[in-house]
Write a structure and sequence with these properties.
This protein is about 85% helix and about 0% strand. The protein is mainly alpha-helical. The longest helix is centred in the first third of the chain and has 32 residues, at about 25-60.
Length: about 170
Amino acid sequence: MYKLKNTIVRSIVAIITGIVLIKWPRLAPNMIIIIIGILFIIPGIVTLINYWIRKSKEGMKLPSYILIESTGSILLGLCMALIPEFFTAFFMYCLGFLLILGGITQIISLVNIQRNIPISLYYYITPILILIAGIITVLNPFETQDTILIMFGICAIIYGITELVNYYKLK
């Protein structure tokens, strides 16, 4: 029963996420980065407070890496929360490079396979499109960001609806 309720929650979250990504594709990535930044800040502050409380109560020397890690977590979280555009751009460039590498890898694999087995040119369409998408993303990350997020939003809505339909069919 718990698993079925989990399916409903997951489906609803996917649908809501999809709607948000379609409605506000420019705002969504920055909000996600800000939320992630806050999720870095909170444990950093809690760890830092616990560090100082334990140090003053127990009077013993605690490992300095705890202080460094918690401070680093807070600083990274602040950077993410205050300048999310930088991290969004970084993510888009990473995505573009991954698409380029994926397209090239698939093309190389097809060429290697074609040495032993004849392959139709049809199989090269998807890797070439992936390669082109990667190049476009690297050259123009902010214009492609909206398109990618809208497509992801559509996929999230389809996923959520499919999960709900499957849930009711299996119930």
